[in-house]
Each structure stands twice: as C-alpha cells, then as structure tokens.
Recover the amino acids of this structure.
C-alpha cells in the first residue's frame, strides 16, 4: 500500500520541477559503484573460457563449480588489468593485496561465498576528472578491486516468486569482475552520467573491458542522499539497483533526488534502503529487505596466497599506458588546432581518434577531416547502426575524397554521394568517380553552352538579377548544377554567369 500512495504523489511531484527556493535548500550527494567484466580469455581462478554464448555449464570445472578440495589460482592478466585501471584512474597501487571470502548463500554461488577483496584492494585514493558544462571537476575514486562473477539463475515462468524451479548456468561463474567505487563527490544525476561516460572511455582506451552495459559487461549501482546545502553531514542514503543504461542511471537518480527532497520538505525521514529502478513505470520501488542483508562476514581466503605487487611490474605497466582520452583531447586541440567540441568528440573512442589522426597527419586541413567525420561519417555509421570499428570506409577513403575535392575533380555535393557509395561498397572514391563519370566540369567552353541555355529558359530570374536581387543568381547557378547533374564546378559557373549577365 505504501508503494502505491508513494507513487501517486510522486507522479504529481515529478511532472512539475521543484521550485527554485526548494532546490536551493538542498544538496545532492551521489556515489557510484561500477562493475566491469574484464576482457581476459580465461576465468579469474581457473582456466575455463570466458567466451559468451556457449551451451550452459560447458565452460566449467571443479574450481568454478566450487567442488570441495579444489585450489583456485589467480589469473595474472586479471590482476594486470586491475593495476592498469588503478593507474589510469590515478590510484595508488597496493604493495600487498589479498583475496577475501564474502559469505552468503545463493544458488548461483555454489561455494556459498564469493571471492572478492575487502580491506586491501589493488588500487585506492584515485580520481577521475570530468568535464561538466565546460568546467573540470575531480571525482574521487575510493577503490579498485577484483572479484569473481556469480553464475546465472534462470527461473521457470515469468518471475522468481511464482517459479517451481530454477536452472543454474555456471559458465559465468568465475569470470573476472572489477569493481570501481567512487567517493560521494558527484553532485547531480547529470554529473553521474558524465562520470560514467568518462570512466567507460578510459576503460575502453586501456582495453580492459568492452563496457557494454546492454550486454552486462558494465553494471552500475548508485548511492544517493540529500542534505541541507552547506552541511557536511550525509543524509540517509538509498542504494539504487537495476540501472541498465547510462540514461537509466540519470533518470533513476533524478527520480530519487526529487523523491527524497519531497520527503524532507514534508518533514519525513528518508529511510535507508535499497530501491529498484523500474524503467517502464519510471519510478523507484523499495526492494524486499531480505535482499539487503549486508552481513557478509568477510574473511581472508586461505586457498589463495596473498599477492606482493612488485614495483617493477607497476612501473612497466605505467610505461605501457596508452595516451588517455583527456590527454589526447588536449593534444588534438594543441596540435591540430581543433575546437574543444571536435576534440572531445573525436577522442571519445580510440578507434575514432586513430581514424582522425591518420588522416590529419597526411592532410593539410585537420578541421576539414573533423567536419567530414562528425557529419557525413557519423551520419552513415548511425544509419547503418555500425561502430567506427566496423566502418567500411577507412582513413584512406576520406583522404582520397578530400584530394579529389581539392583538385577540383569533384564538387563537395558530389563528394557526399561518392562517400556514401564508398561506405556502401568499400570502393575507393577515385574508382567510384571514374566508374560513374562524376568528374567535375570546370572547362569553361563546356559550361558555357549550359549556362546560355539556363539564361534563355529563365527570363524572370535574369530580370530579377538585373534589378539587384542577388538571390536570383543563386537560383540560376542551381539550374546549371541541375542540368549538369551536379558535376559543374559551382565557382566557375558563378563567375561565368556573372560575366554573361553583366554583358546582356
Ligand atoms: Zn573453471
């Protein structure tokens, strides 16, 4: 009953935004816990494959099935990925680390405990710089640690409560997960969204995870509380679960923010609880208290030897670190003279940045490269639902196209068509231009007769031009372009037209 009443007043509250004087009374405090699946070939404590989509329970062994008497051995690559992440997030890297058992019973966890890290994470005291409306803001990173993924339960029927039985698939059990916990430095749902984007870009750059939220390789839980503006004391927080996309994080947090402020405004207390974001209804609901029992009774895993992290190894990883998105963005602005907007866009993914840079190094006008990428290439990729990695055109295609425009072989209008065809077929622009006879006509004698015909056929616009209407000239140029199927060089047409009209 409480839920239903709660939803009805909230719906009313959320339809209108909070009055400014109410907004100004409070401050929002958000912290995010992000879980990412690491891109290792094998699981974290055994040699089983991490490949997705195999038949249930085919990627299992006594270790990840939790059979008695087995000994887990840590996957060095997973530790390396976690250290690399810690370094990329400006964390300190522990000299000494260990694994702990987080004890709880759930059918997808056959050992009855999950191997995780408790008091000695691999990385701690880090930060991420996010850019909020043009301003840089530092968000603290409390910890980076490793843990194992649990199996997957498939409940018969539509929901767990009505199920007669559940099926367990342990292919997922033991896949390495990395948890990244932020400090409660995030001040709005929008900042939370930017933080996630920035974090995802960094993780993709260093190649530790593909961070596909829709495929579950990146998951996020959020803590949110409200306190009087200026206060240093935290309010009671709620934990939000089931945030399945970056937008859901922003929307769920916004709902929760308003809900908590409204409760405080009415003199009520915010209850510390875990809430579930219902995307369809657009509301958060309290989860059953059974699911919030946090008494895990951690203790060190006696089967796994503690890890001594050698400084030499950390230094080596530091040296192998690729240029990160923020550095690359600044360099693009400096080196290629790009505006911040372009630089930000082009450095969002490494593949996009590489594409740009390969062209920009060989071409005189980097801004033109950026323009083509941000408009035409992006449009074609979006309409084909392809990522830049899957793009049928490469830097070579764009370079060849730009050269054809520069040499006056094709007009910009034709270039767009050629680019589209290159995207469809993968053919080089030079080849397309040759095959389809698209070479621009700049030859005056060839254009002259077409221009004469247009002048003859359009006495109205010609008269308009003579009476001083510049727009009429544009119309006539357009007619010549049409007549030559877009192949005429517009600058040349413009010039000859003016000459001819001034004589007539
Ligand atoms: Zn295994």
């Amino acid at each position: 009953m409480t839920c239903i009443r709660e939803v009805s007043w909230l719906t009313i509250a959320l339809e209108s935004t909070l009055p400014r004087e109410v907004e100004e009374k409070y401050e929002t405090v958000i912290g995010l816990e992000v879980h990412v699946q690491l891109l290792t070939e094998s699981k974290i404590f055994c040699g089983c494959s991490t490949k997705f989509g195999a038949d249930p329970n085919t990627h299992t062994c006594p270790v990840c099935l939790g059979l008695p008497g087995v000994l887990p051995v840590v996957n060095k690559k997973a530790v390396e990925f976690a250290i690399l992440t810690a370094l990329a997030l400006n964390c300190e890297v522990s000299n000494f680390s260990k694994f702990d058992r987080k004890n709880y019973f759930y059918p997808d966890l056959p050992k009855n405990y999950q191997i995780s890290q408790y008091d000695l994470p691999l990385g701690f005291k880090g930060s991420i710089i996010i850019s909020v409306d043009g301003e840089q803001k530092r968000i603290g990173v409390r910890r980076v640690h490793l843990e194992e993924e649990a199996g997957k339960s498939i409940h018969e029927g539509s929901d767990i409560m009505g199920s007669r039985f559940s099926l367990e698939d342990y292919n997922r059990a033991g896949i390495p997960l990395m948890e990244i916990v932020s400090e409660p430095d995030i001040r709005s749902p929008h900042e939370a969204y930017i933080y996630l984007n920035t974090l995802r870009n960094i993780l993709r750059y260093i190649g530790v995870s593909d961070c596909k939220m829709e495929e579950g390789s990146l998951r996020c839980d959020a803590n949110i509380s409200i306190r009087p503006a200026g206060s240093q004391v935290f309010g009671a927080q709620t934990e939000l679960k089931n945030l399945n996309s970056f937008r859901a994080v922003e929307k769920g947090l916004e709902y929760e923010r308003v809900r908590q402020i409204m409760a405080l405004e009415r003199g009520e207390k915010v209850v510390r609880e875990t809430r579930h974001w219902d995307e369809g209804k657009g509301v958060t609901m309290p989860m059953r208290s059974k699911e919030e029992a946090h008494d895990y009774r951690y203790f060190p895993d006696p089967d796994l030897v503690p890890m001594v992290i050698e400084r030499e190894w950390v230094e080596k990883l530091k040296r192998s670190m690729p240029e990160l998105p923020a550095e690359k963005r600044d360099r693009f602005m400096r080196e290629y003279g790009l505006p911040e907007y372009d630089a930000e866009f082009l450095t969002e993914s490494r593949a996009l940045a590489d594409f740009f840079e390969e062209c920009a190094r060989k071409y005189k006008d980097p801004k033109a490269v950026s323009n083509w990428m941000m408009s035409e290439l992006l449009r074609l990729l979006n309409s084909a639902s392809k990522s830049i990695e899957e793009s049928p055109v490469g830097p070579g295609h764009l370079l060849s196209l730009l050269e054809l425009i520069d040499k006056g072989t094709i007009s910009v209008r034709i270039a767009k068509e050629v680019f589209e065809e290159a995207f469809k077929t993968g053919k080089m622009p030079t080849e397309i231009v040759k095959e389809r006879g698209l070479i621009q006509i700049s030859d005056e004698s060839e254009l002259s007769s077409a221009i004469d015909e247009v002048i003859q056929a359009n006495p109205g616009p010609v008269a308009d031009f003579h009476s001083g209407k510049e727009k009429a000239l544009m119309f006539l140029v357009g007619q010549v372009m049409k007549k030559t199927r877009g192949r005429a060089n517009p600058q040349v047409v413009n010039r000859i037209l003016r000459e001819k009209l001034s004589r007539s």
